[in-house]
Amino acid sequence: MNIETLSPFILTLVTFVPAGGALLLVLFPRRDRDVRLFALVVSLLAFILSLHLPAHLVRSQPGFQFEVNRQWITSPNIHYHMGVDGFSMWLILLTTFLTPLCVLISWRIHDRVKEFFILLLVLETALIGVFTSLDLFLFYFFWEGTLIPMALLIGIFGHERRVYAAVKFFLFTMIASVFMLAAILWLYAKVGSFDFVTLQNAIRAGQVQNFSGASFWLFLGFFVAFAVKVPLFPLHTWLPDAHVEAPTAGSVLLAGVLLKMGTYGMLRFNLGLFPEQSQRNAPWIAALALIGIIYGALVAMVQPNMKKLIAYSSISHLGFVVLGIFSFTTAGLNGAIFVMLAHGISTGALFMLAGILHERRHTYEIREFGGLATPMPIYAALFLFIVLSSVGLPMLNGFVGEFLVLSGAFRAHAIYGILGATGVIWSACYLLWMYQRVFFGKVTHEVNNTLPDLTVFERAALWPTAVIALVMGVAPLLWLGAIDPAVQKALAPFAQVASRLVGQ
Amino acid sequence: MVPLPYYLVLSGILFACGVTGFLIKRNIITIFMSIELMLNGVNLSFVAFAAHWHALSGQVFVFFVMVVAAAEAAVGLAIIIAVYRTRETLNVDQVNLLKL
Amino acid sequence: MNGILQTADYVRILPELVLSVFGIVVMLLEPLFDERRTQRTLGTIALVGSLAAIAASVYQAQYPGFAFWNMVRVDGFSVFFHVLVTTIAAVVILTSYEYMSVQRIRAGEYYGLILLGAVGMCLMSSAVELVLIFIALEISSISTYILAGFRRREAASSEASLKYFLLGSFATAFFLYGVALMFGATGSTNIDKISQALQERTVPTLAYLSVALMFVGLGFKVASAPFHIWTPDVYEGAPAPIVGFMSTAPKAAAFAVLLRILLEANAPGRFWLIWFSAALSMCLGNIGALVQTNVKRLLAYSSIAHAGYLLVAFAAAPQIGISAAMFYTAAYAAMNVGAFAAVSHFANAGEKYVTLDDYAGLGRRSPILAATLTIFLLSLIGIPATGGFFAKFYVFSAALKADLVGLAIIGVLNSAVAAYYYLRIIVVMYMREGRQEIPVTKIPIGLGTALVVSLVATIYLGVLPGRVLDYALRSAGQLVPPASAVAASGPVAPAR
Amino acid sequence: MLHLALFSIFGAICVAGAVNLLIQRHPINSALSLIAVLASLAVEYLLLGAEFVAAVQVIVYAGAIMVLFVFTIMLLNAGEEERTRGSRVAIIFGIPGMLVGSIVVAWVLLRYSGTGSVPVGALPGPPITIAQLLFHDFLLPFEVTSVLILIAIMGAVVLASREETPPPAERGHI
Amino acid sequence: MTPNLQLWLIPLLPLLGAAINGLLGRRSSRQAVSVVALVFCGGAFAWALYLAARFSSLAIPHTEFLAPWIRIGGFAADFAFYLDPLSLVMMLVVTGVGFLIHIYSVGYMWEEGGYYRFFSYLNLFMFFMLTLVLANNYLLMFIGWEGVGLASYLLIGFWFTKDSAASAGKKAFIVNRIGDFGFLIGLFLLIKHFGSLTFDQVFAAISQLRPETAGAGLLTAIGLLLMVGAAGKSAQLPLYVWLPDAMEGPTPVSALIHAATMVTAGVYMVARSHVIYERAPEALTVVAIVGVLTALFAATIGVAQTDIKKVLAYSTISQLGYMFLGCGVAAFSAGIFHLMTHAFFKGLLFLAAGSVIHALGGEQDMRRMGGLRHHIPWTFWTMTIATLAIAGIPPFAGFFSKDEILWRSYQASWIYWLIGVFTAFLTSFYMFRLLFLTFFGEYRGAVGADLEHGAGHDSHDAHHGHAHIHESPKVMLVPLVILAILSVIGGWVGVPGSLGGSNRFDKFLGPMFRVTTPAVNAEHAAPGEVAPPEKQTEGPEPQTGSGTELMFTGISVAAAALGLLLAWWLYLRNPELPQKIADALDGFYEAVLNKYYVDELYAVLFVRPLVDGSARILWRGIDQHVIDRAVNDSADGARHVSDNVRHMQSGNLRSYAGWVAAGAAVVIAYMVWTGAR
Q: Domain range spanning residue B29?
């Protein structure tokens, strides 16, 4: 059949293939091995399907593509409206790319295998849905949809304090997102539609009555929900717990994709719907982002627990993203997206690596290790590679994004760039120190002498991330080419806004 | 010639007495009686209003109220008996198994 | 009104007729069967009865209009509640099968009372005459009083029944007083006449007073603060299936009455009354539930909170508000009946296992039951793709349409807080290992069906709520004449 | 004038009876004072011209319901009620609430104009007309009350019946 | 039309080698590994030579576009290479010295574990270094910049089981990062104001800037920021601390990375950015001052070191200081000249030292050496040549380059010169001290006795268990010899006019530094600037000064000779004297011996506070006791409230009635109030 005819349905397919797989999983396979294989196949299928997007995305055209828009519920006027642009497409690919790796890395799970993979696949669907949906209701639908499987993954398959972590995670995000719900409902009550584009036009045209009064609160409503997910500085406290307790695959998706939901939301909705408010509130948001960058890094530096360290490092990295977004510069936004992707890859890989270690030693405590480079050289090499990519070494994925973000931030306000750039130092500090403590020196604990090196599945899970990390660093244009037009479009309104602000 | 409000106030007083009884009496049966008292108060105002509006429907209403009262009485007393069987007391203050 | 009754008159009370006939039949047949067979047979008959009643209500929908000289009015609104109530009755009967056989409850009276109680509830939703409303109210109340006390051996059960009964009659007296004063204020007990009277004349203070008193009475029935106080005790003491019944059907009916009286009769000065009652109910219910350890009691508190959410819809603009409320009652019925069905199955004989600790590790021991219960709980939280979500969603959007931003904010915050205690149950079921071994029996057919039905309903309302919403919207349109809609939206003004 | 006198006398008896109901500590006394209240209320109905209601009041209430009460009291041979202080709330919130409420109500009622006064037998409620209403306009409620009573009977039977059903069977593991 | 020179071959060949060795090396034999490494590295060298041969016939500067890298909005940074005299020189030095050291390493590392790792790292380093010198824009340069940092991190930590080595690597990387931070900010400034990072565009834009337009301040800022980067990479004050520790790495690494090539990247970058510096005199002054101070400071420390490699390390720092001084006085070509010669003799010194260590089975402490000249003559002689070169004894390479720098610096300010000369004296002193301690006198060490030296050298010990000191194998000696030759003749390309030479080197490089220097700037140089450097920069040799220049030359040579004599007198004539002196001024001596406690100072000032502060205040303090606590407390608070609400449910019927009545009262009162209004 002609591949072009796929385009209208592709998003629906990509989104719901995993869920369908999960459904089949409920019904059919019984033996654990089949379950694993099936999950792998499904997630790979989703990945292959998602490859259709970059292949057929018209890069020159900034608007939404592969759109599908059907009436779902007449009253309230809810549409099944999906579409992607340069922003969301890559995030979808990130999701579909990471999920098979999660399946691989979770190969060793023995308890409640079926439930585990069902939850994983459902989670994937919800995540993809968040990035594809253009109807605010649909968006909220998927947004909340990610909550349950993630919470269950943490709570059922996690480690010692898993329940506390799961509940904390659930409540934090839940409470935050009801504010968004309120804002969405307000918009609906005034405009009578959940459609992103419609709302955007209505707001731009100023057809929403007493919008100016409410806009700040609406902005805040959305922002709080996203800020908790990111997580922005004072709201981050759920993240370390969630990460430490989550099973490896959970952490990978949590850090790799879930956090991006927040930044994506800021980009799409806060900037898309409330450019003026975004401009006004940029200072304190950027301040929080900077605090997050430095604070996260410094706290990460002193963590005795490997996973906690990585968790705090993601706080620091996501700070870059927020900083980039609220710099309102081309470089900043491009960089922000790129950091999202890069962080998704490298931190995802880091969590996999940590998980591999945990599988062998059942601890994340750094002092339990040391000198591991001797017993497990390949592991050490890959770990180093990923660490470097996360440190932001040029020619690896981390650098491009951070560089763009910082230069954008610097262009916006020199001080942003300068403070943000200190992050470059910190990241080197905490990651290399951790690496040294874990891998260098003599083997301190006898147990570690006998640790086996990577298994086939683990390699299969890790190599792709390494390769992608390299490619992203060497040929970022493959990504930026699609991102840049979307960025230009997103930034278009800010010219007027700026002028208007000056006017006032 | 009696002003209507008199009747109404009288009914109100009866109703209030009923409420008070519910609040202060310990014996379940007496509490139940206070409820009857309230109903009667209501009945009085029904009749009074009926007279005032020259609408007999008010009186019919009273009739229905009585029927209901009778039914309630039957059920209520049955419940009271059931409670007494299980708890061996008629003091409400001691019927507080379910709390918090 | 001429003196002759047409068949239409009977058609318009057909569900009630069917129900009462079957109720009587069940009651009469009871002595004819021996102990063992009685349960199932009578249950089946009762089930058939309620199904027939559903059919009757659907059929009845083609004959809208007044019957028995303006006693009852059949319109979309009443049909909606007829179907709802009868369905609930059917599901509860299904749920009760196993329960009865375990508890050795006398089936005849049990099913009879459910069916006859349903009669009262149906009448409540269709009656437009205060006399009839009062009697119907009493029917439903009294039957639930009795059902609450059905486990006579348990002190808790009879105590619940007593509390429910005394407080119920107490509240009824208030309601009755309100009716009397309304009769005094308008000279009529017919809702339409009342609304006319209230519109043409300047509203006398007496009317306000009577509305207040009626609100006390009905507020008690729907368990809205500050008249919610009885709920936890009664729900804890009463038999689980019955709690499922009385937390949904009479409530729905009472809400129907409240809607009729407040909106159709266009009761004056209701706005802030409802506003505060709603806010208070939500807060008290949710906060109270946070530390509960008894699942039935916890759900009781949650039902208070849900009454609050429902009242939010009342406070909103009439038409959309009514439809929102109707949808909410349906969704709430679906999930709550389901939840209590699961609870009652798990509670086992004598309702031993009702504390959170008992639920530990349920996810392992009987995954199906746990999964279904989880879905109901998620729906109660208001997670998308469940009826509960759309219910809340619709209510709050109605509130925001009416610019009740404050109330909406309180509402969403509460629903977020509420997530905590529902989540606790889920957490305990899946993330804790069971301590003592609790007998988990495999789900019997009746209960299974009940669960499936409510599950399907919950999901359906969550994924494709369109039809129900539209229906509710239309019937709400019939219920509220535009004139009163305008008048009613008057009090809304201060909210801005 | 006579009318007012009669009203006041029997009104006084009503209130006295009601108050007595509250202060009497033995249920029987309360029941008797309640009967007094009911009786004098019947007279008030007569004054208002509702003969039928008055009659029913005496027959149903005084005759049937109160007998039921007394019977129950005897059955459970309820004694003096001991003054347990189980509830502070009732005193702290309930009584004031009651007072406030009744004062407000009384104020409304008194200030409720649009009433003339009611002459004796202003609205004769002869059985005929009552029947007219009852069996025509109010036919449905009338019929429905039968359901109500049925329920009441069933309830009474279920709750009060003493027949021993064996205790619930414990389900074994499956 | 410019022919396609396939410049990309030069960096990519080593990368290929690195990849092959890195991925396949584990399973292949040492021979195969060394062949791969040498072939690819040598290929790059060969190609560089070929280019050099063709150079005169090329259109210079020559830019070669390879592929796009980052392009967003208007900004673009591509994979494009840039060939001009400067990069040619650097390229030749890097590939040439690099190649030699590769050869040397084959011998030196033969017994080491992780042989393939070593060579793949080494090739990787070559790749990054060549990218650095060939880049046509700052961002690509930054790739190389960070990349060489990575390579040095890997190579310093090559013996990762040794904690000191691991931490040294980390330290190097992080300190470099601090420098890079400044570099980055500089780049951001460039982007913000010139919208590009490509050398041509940036420099063109800058030459457009009239100094009276506020450009000067901006350029100064950029210059200073870039200087921070350079200081980090080239181990200048205050960021030099990583280099001495870096000696934990294998000696060839110290030779290649920490002496010959990487550390000179800073100098290269400053020279490359000369357009900026020429317009930012203040920045240039800072460069000069930092350079001269570093030179002196490091030299003083070098005097007291006992570890042979540490001495060389500090001398490296000091020599780098010279180079910066050169650039700082706008004598860029002189700086580069010294860079080149230094690459030769310092590389040689390290290799020779390595050969010594090799011979002694890992011994690095000069106090346990001595009298080796008979055992390892080749090493001795080459080492001597190198020492003479670095000491600045004519006609060895070091003499010419150092002398030129000193002369130029004098023209800028006599203080520079004075310190420079004194440093020259110190240099020759500690270098000859090293030479004498190592090769003269009688042997003080004990090879074969159990040696407490790093795990990395275990294999050495194992190999040289029999106590006999032996000359290194040919494969190690050949590079020594070649480098020795270069250290002798290397300087002759730049014989100054005063010595009858024609400074061909300067003529070769000079133009590219001269072209962009508009004479006008001379006047506009900031006031108070002693003898604005532009005047002299690369101006036609002031023949008049040749006399004075000769005199100064004489002085510096004298200083060197003096150093030699002093060393001889102290360490050969009466060897007990040093100890006496040390005791005499023990406090000061202690300080010098311990490198002025700079590391300790940094630890106290920065590291400790940072770590403790993060741990105590940020993590335990804010994160756990404020934020987390707040969250949990609010949860408890909710539970508390809930408990109170529960107690409404006293279970007493009358209380319930009370609530209802009260509620009813409120409702009634409210409604009546509304109605009565």
A: 4-94
Residue C5: which residues within 8 A CB-CB, separation 6 or more? C68
Is the separation of the CB atoms in E580 and E445 below 8 Å?
A: no
CB B13 within 8 A of CB B32: no
Rounded distance between C-alpha atoms, residue E344 and residue E255, angstroms: 10
E258 closest CA partner among E288, E274, E275, E235: E235
C302: confidence class by pLDDT, cuts 50, 70, 90: very high
Contact B97/E at CB under 8 A: yes
CA angle A484–A490–A493, rounded 5-degree value: 135
Minimal CA separation from C156 to chain B, in Å: 6
N-terminal to C-terminal alpha carbon distance within chain C? 45
Q: Rounded distance, CA E152 to CA E162, Å?
A: 16
Distance from C-alpha of D114 to C-alpha of D91, rounded to nearest angstrom: 37
Strand positions, DSSP E, chain D: 117-118
Find chain E residues with C-beta within 8 A of A404's C-beta. Answer: 70, 72
Contact C292, C298 (CB under 8 A): yes
| pLDDT tens track for C148-168 | 988 877 888 888 999 999 999
Smallest Cα distance from E637 to chain C, Å: 11
Residue B13 lies in a domain: yes
Q: What is the CATH number of the domain that holds B32?
A: 1.10.287.3510
Q: Look at strands E62-72 and C65-67 and give their pairing.
A: unpaired
Q: Is B14 within a domain? A: yes
Residue B47 covered by a domain: yes
Would you mind telling me the total number of residues written for chain B in this entry?
A: 100
pTM here is 0.87
For all residues of chain E together, what is the average pLDDT?
A: 82
Q: Which residue numbers of B have CB closer than 8 Å to C's CBs?
A: 8, 15, 18-19, 22, 28, 31-32, 35, 38-39, 41-42, 45-46, 48-49, 52-53, 55, 57-58, 60-61, 64-65, 68, 71-72, 75-76, 79-80, 82-83, 85-87, 95, 97-99
Chains that touch A (3 or more CB pairs under 8 A): C, E
Contact D158, C109 (CB under 8 A): yes
Chain C residues touching D174 at Cβ < 8 A: 439-442
Q: Are A370 and A444 in contact (CB under 8 A)?
A: yes
E66 secondary structure, DSSP code? E
Banded model confidence at residue E536, pLDDT cuts 50, 70, 90: very low
Hey, are the CB atoms on A476 and E69 less than 8 Å from each other?
yes
Q: Which two tokens stand for residue E102?
A: 């590769």
Nearest to C215 by CA among E394, E670, A31: E670
Closest CA to E65 of E78, E74, E75: E78
Record: contact A476-E619, CB cut-off 8 A: no
- Separation CA E29–CA E37 (nearest Å): 12
Tracing tokens 């005097």 back to the chain, one arrives at E303
CB of E378 closer than 8 Å to CB of E477: yes
Q: How many structural domains does chain B have?
A: 1
Q: Mind listing the pLDDT tens digit for each residue in E376-406? A: 888 888 888 888 888 888 778 888 888 888 8
- B100 domain-assigned: no
Q: Would you state the pLDDT for residue C451?
A: 92
What pLDDT is attached to residue D113? Answer: 56
Give the span between the Cα atoms of E397 and E385, in whole angstroms. 10
